[in-house]
Design a protein that fits this description.
Layout: H1 2-16, E1 22-24, E2 30-32, H2 33-41, H3 48-60, H4 72-79, H5 98-109, H6 116-126, H7 130-140, H8 142-148, H9 151-164, H10 171-179, H11 182-190, H12 205-216, H13 222-237, H14 241-256, H15 259-271
Antiparallel strand pairs: 1-2
Helix pairs in contact: 3-4, 5-6, 5-7, 6-9, 9-10, 9-11, 10-12, 11-12, 11-13, 12-13, 12-14, 13-14, 13-15
């Protein structure tokens, strides 16, 4: 321990006596020793989020030049990796500013964004306060985020959006409906990848109709049918069964839903007083 400790203490003492000195990274970003010491001194306890934030921002650009480090994505992944070598969402600070979130996401999405980069974008966005999340998404634009996220990560992002926007203006629901994304539609009901199911009141009746249409598109599996049953039940309980009847209808529903799920939907609609149609 002495052999390891003494050189480290000697290094810290030398650094404290040379705070005006600078360090330049391989990418050309230059920082003063004082900046590095400040980050180090705030690495633990109540200041641990400040330390990680500093490390994230120091890892992507020079505060003096604003030039993006070409190793930015790797630096972010390294900072967010825990002692077990796993990318850890809990290491993402929850108090980032909108500007910091945008910079970090751009550093990860620009270039080749695969695997850990995609997960890191998702972790950084979903860990923020709702207002910061919305501000960052608005500035980044969903098309740009879509260019970096694929498959599971994109579907999870849509669920995250659905959980953070309100009925009538729910971006997550809008994108699911416009893409006819049945995978993301099911996640609204079941949750997934650490994100809970959406509160059904977060979507308007019209938005739920769009989700049902997404679930009915293509091959309608048992999982799709079960999700539709849950949505129809919610709409009937909230006095919106009429939208299901008018905008979906029994004929279209019957083409995608069969067996016990079809019988469940017929029962729900019958109990909502739609007994004079094919529902009855």
């Amino acid at each position: 321990m002495l052999f390891i400790g003494l050189p480290w203490e000697s290094f810290l003492e030398h650094a404290r006596n040379n705070k005006d000195g600078t360090v330049t990274t391989d990418a050309g970003s230059t920082f003063t020793v004082a900046e590095i010491l400040d980050a180090w001194n705030n690495r633990k306890g109540a200041n641990s989020q400040k330390f990680i934030t500093n490390m994230l921002m120091l890892g992507i650009e020079s505060e003096k030049t604003g030039i993006l480090d070409h190793n930015a994505d790797d630096n972010i992944i390294t900072t967010l990796t825990n002692e077990k070598g796993q990318l850890d969402a809990n290491r993402v600070p929850t108090n980032l500013t909108k500007e910091q979130v945008v910079k970090l996401c751009k550093a990860l999405i620009d270039g080749v964004c695969i695997g850990s980069d995609e997960d890191a974008v998702l972790f950084i966005l979903r860990r923020q306060k709702y207002v910061v999340f919305k501000q960052a998404v608005e500035e980044l634009k969903t098309d740009y985020i879509d260019s970096g996220l694929n498959g599971r990560q994109w579907d999870t992002f849509l669920l995250v959006c659905a959980n953070r926007y309100s009925a009538g203006r729910n971006i997550g629901a809008y994108l699911i409906a416009s893409e006819k994304n049945d995978d993301a539609a099911r996640m609204l009901i079941n949750g997934g990848y650490g994100e809970p199911p959406v509160n059904k009141n977060k979507l308007s009746g019209m938005e739920w109709i769009g989700v049902i249409n997404a679930l009915l598109s293509g091959v309608c599996t048992d999982a799709d049918e079960n999700a539709i049953v849950a949505i129809v039940r919610h709409m009937a309980k909230s006095g919106q069964a009429g939208l299901v009847h008018t905008l979906i209808g029994p004929s279209k529903m019957d083409k995608g839903v069969d067996g016990k799920q079809w019988n469940q939907i017929r029962k729900i609609m019958k109990n909502a007083n739609y007994t004079w149609s094919w529902w009855g």
